[in-house]
Predict the structure.
Amino acid sequence: MKEELNIVLTEAVFYTLLALYSPLHGYGIMQETEKMSNGRLKLSAGTLYGALSSMLEKGWISELPTEAGSRKKEYVITNLGKEVTKIELLRLEELVENGKKIIK
């Protein structure tokens, strides 16, 4: 199963998964990812909702039940999504360490 999870995440997907360790709606995800990246990553609605749709299909996140009449959908990371995020973090750490060995 780990080989199936050995993929490279986009920055937008990685930050979105990190943001969803706590349940959030779309606008909350946009705010949290911008905050985590110190304002560098500003997700557009199209980018975010495309990523959310893909992550839902892959089972990396789930949609929480909404209150009657509410249009805001909240999302949260799944156990599979947490595993994917951990694997990506290890990949990024290796990348940085190898870069540090060369660039001093």
About this structure: The chain has a mean pLDDT of 92.
